[in-house]
Amino acid sequence: MNSENLSLSEKIVSPSYIRQGSQARRSHEQLIRHLLEQGKCPEEGWSESTVELFLNELAVMDSNNFLGNCGVGEREGRVASSLVARRHYRLIHGIGRSGDIAAIQPKAAGSSLLNKLTNSVALDILRLAGVRSVASCFVVPMATGMSLTLCFLTLRHRRPKARYIIWPRIDQKSCFKSMITAGFEPVVVENVLEGDELRTDLEAVERKIEELGAENILCVHSTTSCFAPRVPDRLEELAAVCTKHNIPHIVNNAYGVQSSKCMHLIQQGARVGRIDAFVQSLDKNFMVPVGGAIIAGFDESFVQEISKMYPGRASASPSLDVLITLLTLGANGYKKYLSERKEIYSFLAQELKSLASAHGERLLHTPHNPISLAMSLDGLQAESDKAVTQLGSMLFTRQVSGARVIPLGKEQTINGHTFRGFMSHSESYPCPYLNAASAVGITREDVTLCMKRLDKCLKTLKKEGNAVKNGSPSNQEVTTGE
Q: Residues forming the annotated binding site for pyridoxal 5'-phosphate?
């Protein structure tokens, strides 16, 4: 209520009560004022009532919610289902305009304000997470792969003769297809094995640049967050190589925001060399539904160029989801999640190492990967050829999600390119293995229950293997739950 309505209310209800209610409302409005003034994630999270008050205030600023609105256009924010309208807080117009996803919509001031504030808060969080010199970012309603494609298409206008993208191998289909979809030819650079880790082959990258010619290369497409035993690319060295040859550098930072190590690599890469843009997923880093990403960079004009490449308006759902989440958590709440994730990574490593030892396996030594871990499955492979893949299906049926079992020798053809040893990031990794990750939001209970079920599966497979060797039929154990 405004001051006039409050004065009128005092004629109906005791003025002291109205003043008390007015003070309570001002406490909500004070938080909103700070957000509008600073454009940063609040230190402490907001209550749901404050968030909903703010969203309702934004919604009434959009023309589809004007009391006297008369719409005669083809896009007037009409929604047939009231359930759908409530799901979106009646913010129906989306974000951007036909020529620019970051543009202001004349008939949707509230949605436009939502878009600008979300981008500003996201930028603040990227700086808080470790990339302190990032200049600009925007939320785009596409997942990581398509967001990378948008970056490559933007670079096409700057480097019209380029045909190739140099890509240190990571076995994740969307990364590869993002380059194909943009119309470029990926040049796959195999990783080198250092101990148990798969690391960037810098000499091979240099050789490819010399062989193809720098002017024919659109960019280097590197990766931070990944499944062990692959580890984040040598970003500082790659950034220096890109500067040396004047080649753009795009970083796939899919779930790297949650890792201070990944964010530090990006910060250092930009300090010593060249990083044009880095892309991160919303769902993996901020615990929101799938469908959004943040595209960020160190040159504001280039980031704006990418946003203008997006054709048409866009859904506001990813922006709305991440803004609600960050306002609810606050900077301190998000930092707490990051701290807990790091602690549970150490706990997961200890538990996986103990379990591996008990079954004659070992935890692979991958100190440069701050999120994912891997346990060898050599003994399981020795039991039978099918035991490794069987372990994966057993874990899935026992409701262990996210664990990846990687057999030896798998081949996969994607858009005409055959990857040998697919899923292992290498043509010939020495052993089969199992992956587990400590990602943001994981709990100690998740780890404990996973280890318990994995232990049971390994014992069952060993028992079946021994039965086959002894020539007796195995009694297959069917277990659900714990």
A: 75
Residue 447 and residue 426 in one domain: yes
Contact 136, 291 (CB under 8 A): no
In terms of C-beta density within 10 A (0-12 exposed, 13-18 middle, 19 or more buried), how is residue 123 classed? buried
d(CA 425, CA 437): 17
Task: With CA atoms as reference, report the closest residue to 59 among 87, 37, 80, 97.
Answer: 87
How high is the pLDDT of residue 221?
A: 98
Which residue numbers belong to the known binding site for tRNA? 271, 398, 463
Taking alpha carbons only, the member of 459, 143, 187 closest to residue 294 is 143
Q: Please state the domain count of the chain.
A: 3
Query: What pLDDT was estimated at residue 312?
Result: 83
Give the residue numbers of the binding site.
75, 97-98, 105, 271, 313, 398, 463
pTM for this predicted structure: 0.94
Which pLDDT tens digit goes with each residue over 56-99? 999 999 999 899 888 888 888 999 999 999 999 999 999 998 77
Instruction: Tell whether 302 and 158 lie within a shared domain.
Output: yes
* Burial category of 67 from C-beta neighbours within 10 Å (exposed 0-12, middle 13-18, buried 19 and up): exposed
* 22: containing domain: 1-30
**Does any domain span residue 77?**
no
Section 204-224 average pLDDT: 98
Q: Quickly tell me which residue has 């004047």 as its tokens.
A: 246
Residue numbers in the known binding site for substrate are 97-98, 105, 313
What is the C-alpha radius of gyration for the chain, rounded to an integer number of angstroms?
26
pLDDT at 478: 39
CA distances from 396 to 1, 384, 454, 460, 479 (A): 54, 20, 10, 15, 11
At residue 20 the predicted structure's pLDDT band, cuts being 50, 70 and 90, is confident
The answer to whether residues 202 and 316 belong to one domain is: yes
